[in-house]
Amino acid sequence: MKNRGLSGTDRMLDLAMGLPEQLLSGAKAASAARVGRPARFDAVAVAGMGGSGIGARIAQGLLFDESALTVHVCNDYSIPTAVTARTLFVAVSYSGNTEETLSAYAQARRRGCRIIAITSGGELARSAARAGYPVVSIPAGMPPRAALGYLFSSLLVSLERLGVCESHQRGLEEAVRLMRARRSFWLGRARALAKQVNGRLPLVYSTSRMLDAVADRWRCQLNENAGVMCHTHYFPEHNHNEIMGMGRPRHPGRNTVVIALLDRDTHPRTRYRLESVLDINAETYYLAARLESEGRSRLARIFSLIMLGDVVSVELARLVGKDAMEIQRIEELKRRMAQKRG
Question: Is the distance from CB of 295 to CB of 175 less than 8 angstroms?
């Protein structure tokens, strides 16, 4: 990676712009790994936190209308009771040392699950290798949130190879082509949106279950890269509660920016709901940005909005004067947790 001499924010921008290349590399790694033969599973469970876990949420949204299997996403120390010996369990930890994921992995082992590990090393890689579980290895040396392409495509291809879902190869290839063709344009758009968000609270709303994880990705990236708060909610559920709270308390009130994520599969009634909510509450926000996904395949449409959001977060970091690579509070919390465990 050609990033010597660059600032942390510029390095993070390089990583964000390299998302299509990551997708290809992660898919290749999973295709080459010895994940075993396809089998009949009752469910799938994927454990992962933060940047390692968001790929599982994206896969869950992608497969919502495609797979009859329930996909559990475990973002905690424990796994659901429904996870049994007939469950495919995937442990995803970029560092390989995420304590919540290692705890969930240990429980899956005790329950006799079929297990796969996706990691760049650490305790997870060592333990899985000793136990004879397949390990999909991805490159080390970057923040977990900046390794989404590797983590997501290696997970998706592993699920495909084990018969959980159909192949998304064509969709993956289209997503890569689209991102490569549009990334310069999206950079300009992201810079303009970052200026509008600067100094205000972003409210990111999803309008389909496929985009729920995308909204969460926007929130996580704005939190970590730009160091700002961000709120997410999901239409139409928003209309049954949050509509009443918009603009109150008076701060942040008008000091908010609505970012609505839209897709061609967004239900027509949901689109009408969005426009009605924005009209009814026009005095409660500074600006409403409607962002339409691009591309044909579901994967391309998902990643068109993910890449845009990633770049917005980096450009907002630049505006607020934060190093997009720095996560001092998270590192301090990890230090305290390790000290307490000791």
Answer: yes
What is the distance, to the nearest Å, from the Cα of residue 105 to the centroid of all Cα atoms in its chain?
20
To which residue do tokens 């896969």 refer? 59
* CA–CA dist 135, 130 (Å, integer): 11
The structure's pTM equals 0.96
DSSP per-residue letters across 27-39: HHHHHHS------
Domains of the chain: 8-167 (3.40.50.10490), 184-320 (3.40.50.10490)
pLDDT, tens digit (0-9, with 9 covering 90-100), for 299-321: 999 999 999 999 999 999 999 99
Residue 248 three-state SS: coil
Task: Give the number of other CB atoms < 10 A from CB of residue 5.
Answer: 7
Give the distance from CA 336 to its chain's centroid: 26
Enumerate the β-bridge partners of residue 91. 47, 117
Helix (H, G, I), strand (E, B) or coil at 261: strand
Residues across the chain: 342
Could you give the CA distance from residue 207 to residue 249 in angstroms, rounded to a whole number?
25
- Distance, C-alpha 211 to centroid of its chain: 10
pLDDT over 60 at 82, yes or no = yes
DSSP H helix total and E strand total for the chain: 11, 9
Q: What is the pLDDT of residue 1?
A: 45
Residues 161-215 pLDDT 10s: 999 999 999 999 999 999 999 999 999 999 999 999 999 999 999 999 999 999 9
In terms of DSSP H, where are the helices of 88-168?
99-110, 122-131, 148-161
Region for residue 147 given its phi and psi (left: phi exceeds 0; alpha: psi -120 to 50; beta: otherwise): alpha
Q: Where are the beta strands (DSSP E) in the chain?
A: 43-47, 70-74, 87-93, 114-119, 135-137, 201-206, 231-234, 256-262, 287-292
Catalytic sites, residue numbers: 224, 240, 334
Q: What is the pLDDT of residues 19-70, one digit of tens each?
A: 999 999 999 999 999 999 999 999 999 999 999 999 999 999 999 888 889 9
Helix (H, G, I), strand (E, B) or coil at 74: strand
